Amino acid sequence: MYEAVHAHPDGETTVARHAATAARYGYDGVVVRTGTSADPATYSDIAEEYGIDVVDAVEIDAGDRTAASGAVGSRRPDHTLVCVVGGDDGLNRYAVEEPRIDVLVRPNGDSGGFNHVLAKAARDNGVHVEFDFGPVLRATGGKRVRALSDLRKLREIVTYYDAPHVVSANATSHLELRPPRELVAVAERAGFDPEWVRDGLRAWREIAERNRERRSGAFIEPGVRRGRHEETGR
Amino acid sequence: MKHLPKHLRPRWRYVAVGLEAWPDADVDRRGFQRALWYGAGNLLGDTGSADAGLKLLSFSFSDGEGEAVVRVRHGHLDDARAAIACVSEVDDDPVGIRIRGVSGTVRACEERYMGRAAGSSTQRDVAFEDADQTAVVRGDVYDVRVGSGYVGAAAFDIE
Fold first, then answer.
1. Out of the domains of life, which is the source (chain A) (predicted)?
2. Which CATH number do you get for residue A194?
3. Is A226 domain-assigned?
4. Rounded CA gap, A188 and B116, in Å?
């Protein structure tokens, strides 16, 4: 199971500390979402040091779809995993209709809603919808109640159309990370099926593995790859 | 009062909890107990938290690291796990929390999961991101003082 985190300077904890903590908590990998001062080239060293996979990702937080589209085009080639921060209706709509995007994160961020049209588009384009448990773990009172009811609505729509999903605690520091079992227990209290939540945590890995294969030199297009097949003399 | 016959006594599980916080955090037993009860009350409701019967049995915390034993009614472990995970701050200090394990007796819980502190922390000057900073070092972890707050780093980040 993987977890997606915000690393320093976007968060309060460096990639290495996130990796060390996540490894101790029993995760198989961390997805580093945004703006880190560490060079992504060091990720493999960190992965080796702490025995945990480290995935370089980018989280695009644009004001509108034009800006988001430009950012996706320019940053897609450099990162294994591309997330777009949702929030308003236009951005959510754009994100689910763009197959180059892997994950739509925080679709309920601001005023944004999610409906059957977006769920179908997400399913057809293979864009994963994120279930952000951050507010459930850290907010209190009315804010938490709203977050829970948004998650419930999102779950009903996403499961009905069988759109792909990911689950995260959206941690900005190592203190906000929670082990997978605890995260599943919280989600279960909120009405989620435990196995479905675990699938959401595993989905990060599936996306990362698929994209790594696509970015490798052997990949031509889906179903076509360059192998090491020597022609035998005939 | 005469104590209950064995089959009527409640059965308990003992949860070993590991805590982490920034080095300047002041987390005490009373504050943690309050956070735990409020967390359970908010997540499980009055009836649910009464069922789970969370009680803090032992607690220790120093230098940004601590551990606790929490008593839980048998069969409500998942509820308790969720409630404990929802403790995100104690007296406005953010805390990281994880369940190290669960035992059937206090003694087994303490022998198996307690006393794993990484040792005392020391203050040291370190080179972090091309600048000299002060850091609180505990084993492999470095909490680097940057500006008014801390940045969580590991030995890997320190040049």
1. Archaea
2. 3.20.20.140
3. no
4. 30
